[in-house]
Design brief:
This protein is mainly alpha-helical. Helices cover 68% and strands 2% of the residues. The protein is elongated and about 65 Å long.
């Protein structure tokens, strides 16, 4: 594995670790409980850490391995960005999320209302957790995913 690919993987792993560290500090020390979608938005970072660590074990200097590694990271970041933007759209009320995440109640009788309230999650996806009173954590995640995607595409372009 060449030095450039090792640095690229190290940067991706480091950024993923820092982002996960920050969200866990916000969750456990500042009481910012995540919704289900917020928890799902963490998976790409875990996948990057695992795949990056595994790719360190592959001792190959072939260009194909480098391109595949870059492409996999770019795909992970692209999927994460799409999911994160979808979450931001739900928070900003651009569209309605799944019934598990929204606060839409359409009960016609007391039994239906009671069951909908009991099944509704405590932390809803359509109520953003704001940092600095203007930007949500999901929006910050979208920005991070977008930057990481652009970074991956630039490195991929230079490898091809």
């Amino acid at each position: 594995m060449n030095n450039i690919l090792e640095k690229y993987i190290a940067i991706n792993i480091s950024i993923s670790v820092v982002i996960l560290f920050i969200v866990y500090v916000l969750q456990y020390f500042f009481g910012m409980a995540p919704c289900d979608m917020c928890i799902n938005e963490r998976y790409p970072y875990f996948i990057v850490i695992i795949l990056g660590t595994v790719s360190y074990g592959i001792k190959s200097n072939t260009k194909v391995v480098e391109i595949i590694t870059n492409l996999i990271f770019a795909i992970i970041y692209f999927i994460g960005l799409i999911y994160s933007v979808y979450h931001v759209g739900i928070e900003r009320k651009y569209w309605i999320g799944s019934s598990n995440c929204s606060s839409k109640i359409n009960a016609l009788d007391i039994e239906t209302l009671s069951s909908q309230l009991m099944e509704m999650p405590i932390i809803r996806c359509d109520e953003p957790t704001f940092l600095f009173n203007f930007i949500s954590i999901a929006e910050l995640n979208s920005i991070a995913m977008g930057i990481l995607l652009i970074f991956s595409l630039i490195v991929l372009y230079k490898k091809i």
